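To illustrate the input format used throughout this study, we show a single complete record. The first block contains the structure-token representation of the backbone; no residue identities are included at this stage. The design step must infer an amino acid for every position from geometry alone.
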């Protein structure tokens, strides 16, 4: 049985973030398993409102790793990222004729765990590799160099 080193992981936890857990999971699924630098680039370029608090959490977890543990930021990988539902803030909005309408503001808790892959031997080739490059370059080369082109079909 291989024993994992518990000193290779650092985490950051954001609680009561005012957004739906479903919307935060849409962003978290894109960054899970990627390297730290790649994650920062992805989060800066994604057009979702959930990216900013997740960006702050990833940055905070990396600061924890470099300050508390002395890890190098180039060796960090997001090993675990999860979103849990928090409490729902319930308010009443006044409406016409003395009625009221319930307003529900969902919150979520986000946990980001970073792992240093330089210390953990079994996870050196662990994080996601860009598989889209192989698929699309093969398709483009086939389209460019094939005898029948796209414009030959009638």
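Output of the design step:
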């Amino acid at each position: 049985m291989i024993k994992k080193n518990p000193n290779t992981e650092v985490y950051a936890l954001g609680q009561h973030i005012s957004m739906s857990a479903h919307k935060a999971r849409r962003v978290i699924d894109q960054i899970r398993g990627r390297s730290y630098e790649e994650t920062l680039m992805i989060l800066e370029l994604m057009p979702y409102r959930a990216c900013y608090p997740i960006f702050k959490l990833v940055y905070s977890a990396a600061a924890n790793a470099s300050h508390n543990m002395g890890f190098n930021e180039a060796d960090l990988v997001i090993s675990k990222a999860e979103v849990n539902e928090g409490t729902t803030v319930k308010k009443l909005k006044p409406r016409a004729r003395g009625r009221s309408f319930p307003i529900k503001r969902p919150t979520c808790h986000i946990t980001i765990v970073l792992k240093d892959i330089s210390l953990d031997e079994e996870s050196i080739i662990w994080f996601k590799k860009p598989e889209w490059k192989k698929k699309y370059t093969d398709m483009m080369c086939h389209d460019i160099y094939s005898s029948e082109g796209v414009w030959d079909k009638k």
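Structural context for interpreting the output: Helices lie at 21-31, 36-45, 51-69, 132-145. DSSP finds four helices and three strands in the chain.
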